[in-house]
Amino acid sequence: MPSPAVQFACDNQPRFLEQLKGLLRIPSVSTLPEHRGDVRRTAELLAAELERIGLEHVALIETEGHPLVYADWLHAHGRPTCLCYGHYDVQPPDPLEEWISPPFEPTERNGSLYARGAVDDKGQMYMHLKALESLLRVQGGRLPINVRVILEGEEEVGGEGIASFVQKHPERLQADFALISDTEMFAPDLPTLCVGLRGMIYTEIEARGAATDLHSGMYGGAAPNPFFALCQVLAQLKNSDGRILIPGIYDDVKEPSAGELAAWRSLPFDEREFLRHEVGSTALTGEPDFSVLQRLWARPTLEIHGMPGGFTGTGAKTVIPAKAAAKVSMRLVPDMAPQKTFQMYKRHVESLCPKGISLDVRLIHSGDPIVIGVDNPYVQAATEAMQEVFGKQTVFVRSGGSIPIVGDFERSLKIPSVMMGFGLPDDNLHAPNEKFSIANFYRGIESLIGFFERLGHG
Amino acid sequence: MPSPAVQFACDNQPRFLEQLKGLLRIPSVSTLPEHRGDVRRTAELLAAELERIGLEHVALIETEGHPLVYADWLHAHGRPTCLCYGHYDVQPPDPLEEWISPPFEPTERNGSLYARGAVDDKGQMYMHLKALESLLRVQGGRLPINVRVILEGEEEVGGEGIASFVQKHPERLQADFALISDTEMFAPDLPTLCVGLRGMIYTEIEARGAATDLHSGMYGGAAPNPFFALCQVLAQLKNSDGRILIPGIYDDVKEPSAGELAAWRSLPFDEREFLRHEVGSTALTGEPDFSVLQRLWARPTLEIHGMPGGFTGTGAKTVIPAKAAAKVSMRLVPDMAPQKTFQMYKRHVESLCPKGISLDVRLIHSGDPIVIGVDNPYVQAATEAMQEVFGKQTVFVRSGGSIPIVGDFERSLKIPSVMMGFGLPDDNLHAPNEKFSIANFYRGIESLIGFFERLGHG
Lengths: 458, 458
Known about the structure:
The structure is a homodimer. Chain A is built from 14 helices and 18 strands. By secondary structure, chain A is α+β, with helices and mostly antiparallel strands. In chain A, strands 1, 2, 3, 6, 7, 8, 15, 16 and 17 form a nine-stranded mixed β-sheet that branches. The longest helix of chain A is centred in the last third of the chain and has 20 residues, at 438-457. The interface between A and B is large, with 102 and 103 residues.
């Protein structure tokens, strides 16, 4: 028999979904200055909702960028304190023309809700609020454990505001563990806890050649071309097997344990399926000596995200641009340190600088790689709660993505994070047609209620 | 003593300049669909002006793109017929933020007129009209020679409309020679005739990897990255000495004659000045075995103009884009054939295609390389006319740029072109802060009057 809170959540599914749609309609794209007002509006909406469901000390905390949203309920004496973290900002929606339904008009299709932010992270973050609401409603405004909620609006742009807040005011977020729902399940219906994350450095390389844009007829053959220079440099950073060619870059890479590797091999992973249904290219790439999961979870990578500058319109313009740039990131694995890695990267990029060109290598943001221990009561309770809802044994995986806040919580608050995520591998994170399984939205709320109840009885 | 036509031109300089400003205010950017109306408006303005100054058969000739403007005056029996060619379209003005005064608000500064199209080619094309007007006004509506005027609005996008018109209706442009003012003087005050042009192929390479944009955390290390693929391919097209690595690409390159090379060596060219004041980079690039002028005028090159796709906004987006593109052109020299060159280029690019990627290599437009003979009465008259106005001996140079119409005139009309240009090397063609020396605008009109008068007496 479901608990009263679970029953409440079931009865209120349609309302929960409509509320989520309202949240998804606000284009809270943190990286674009023109959406600054939308980001704040989202924070205000969430603060009002936290107030409405009965949390206390609800506040917007200003940062140098977008505000944090804080709330707490700390009256479960003798019980653990959970720090519920989520982010309410989203990635830019471009390329717009590839969306089947508009990114900020949440649309139900094939059992999923399509919208930018549906799974990353508005939909998943909202499960926390709805689980808390369900518990508060059926328990006379009380919760089984203590809860602090902290929501940020800068996760997609590096999360500087929360990082600095965590560092300066650890007492305001004091807790026994953090709860984060911003990861995915390994396969549909397979309850999954994420216990490792890659770190990252996100960089921009700007190349400058001539003092002004030049006509490629008049100057081609004598003037340096910053795009060609960037191509020369970038092509030398990785070989065609995906091995990064920066000297020393693999020195600090720690191999996963034999047990972890064995567990990964037993996961239901079909490389052909992955190629065909998730990636959809003619072949996979990357270091041939490592399995795909090891490449994604336990090996560093280097990617180019875009190369701004020059002429990108339709048709032709015969310009040798004065400058060009490349947005390049690296994913890091334990025990690579972001600052040390960036210095190696920068030094190597600069050493490859072609004649006539000057290069400026900037770090935009960074995050530590993380591995979480699984031998604590919080991971244990999460494992059981998900198993009960899904009726299957919970698996432990890593993610190739980065959640820098996990490192901040570990360093400044000295607490572990429980990463209970309900996304699916084909949810199109950071891509057109992002979606979130509506069933998983409901099962996520139910799992979270079970998790809080378990820790309350414990 | 100046001829009455030259006197008329001198007396009317302020009006001529104001009229040119009116022409420059219309943003006739042929490559951008949103400026389609502006391009047509420019054509209509020019047609009205041709009518007003007294030419006949003024007409807009429709093409599949932007219209041609035609006019003639054919009553100088026994005298040669000149085909005055010019283009009234302009390059896009971006990057806008680098213009000191707005690109479509013509502004006088330091003796020059700053505006997009000032020198390329509205200002130079307009000299023809003002020279004709001056002659018509002082000679009772008559000209010393026969004239046809043909102006196009697609030069900056490949000039397909005029190319097809020349091919289909050579009789409508029948003439003894063409006159083109779309080149530059070798140095300020040095009268210059251009007798050679590079040809070109303008291409776009599109690289496709995954079926959709992917999150670089989730997929980095296994999914192909089309930007990295393009960098790998492009970096292999040219070595760091600027030598193009496409097999066979130099087979058809014809060395300039010993006489031509000797003449180039005697031109007032200072490599340090060129580097410092025209290019403004830390060093020049290109094949070290050839002089700068030979690299610019008589050697093929390959340039990257832009790399559309992916994330190019401010900040960070961690996407592995599904596709990326590169706009790449090659300049060709005699006797390279554009189609044959494109096939070699395409085959080589495709042969370099990395694993997991598919490449689509498209030709956007092309033009033949040209060398003009100097032993004809038209080049002779031009040489003398410019010498008289500038008081110095006219030099013969080539240009690294491309004017495909010269090849069309040669092939379909069987006529040579006289390229009398009055631009300066630092006029910022195709770049921000394009300008045209106001003194050269006036001296150009005077030179053209002298040229027409000489051929009329001849």
